[in-house]
Amino acid sequence: MAEPKRRKDINEEEFFGFAKSYLSEAFPNPQRLGCPPDSELISMAEHPNEAAHPIVSQHLTCCSPCFSRYMEILANLRRRKETGQ
Fold first, then answer.
1. 47 within 8 A of 83, measured Cβ to Cβ
2. Do 35 and 62 form a contact (C-beta atoms < 8 A)?
3. Could you tell me the pTM of the whole model?
4. 83 Cβ partners below 8 Å, 6+ apart?
C-alpha cells in the first residue's frame, strides 16, 4: 500500500508571506465598495485589537486594496518606531 502524500511543511514566515501575497491580490475591489476611511485603518494599525475593529478587520480579508494599504500603514509605523520618530 502506498504512503499518502504529505504536504510540505511550511514555516511561519513562509505562511505569512503566502497569506500577505494572497490577500494583496486575490480580492480586487476597483470600485472600492465598503472600504473604510484611512483613519480607521490607521487606528487599527496603531491599536491592533480585532475586537475593537471587527468590521475593518473583516473587510481586510476580502479587499486587496485595503489590505495593501493597511500593510503600508503598518510598515510606516514600524519604520517610525525604529527611527524614534
1. no
2. no
3. 0.80
4. none
How far is 66 from 46, CA to CA, in rounded Å?
16
| Number of CB atoms found within 10 A of residue 73's CB | 17
Residue 53 has, within 13 A of its CA and on its CB side, a CA count of: 20
Cα–chain-centroid distance for residue 83? Answer: 23
Under a CB-based contact definition with an 8 Å cutoff, are residues 58 and 78 in contact?
no
Give 55's pLDDT tier (boundaries 50, 70, 90): very high
Q: How far apart are the first and last CA of the chain?
A: 62
Place of cell 510540505: 8
Q: Summarize the confidence of residues 66-73 as an average pLDDT.
A: 96
Helices (H), the chain: 12-25, 38-46, 54-60, 64-83
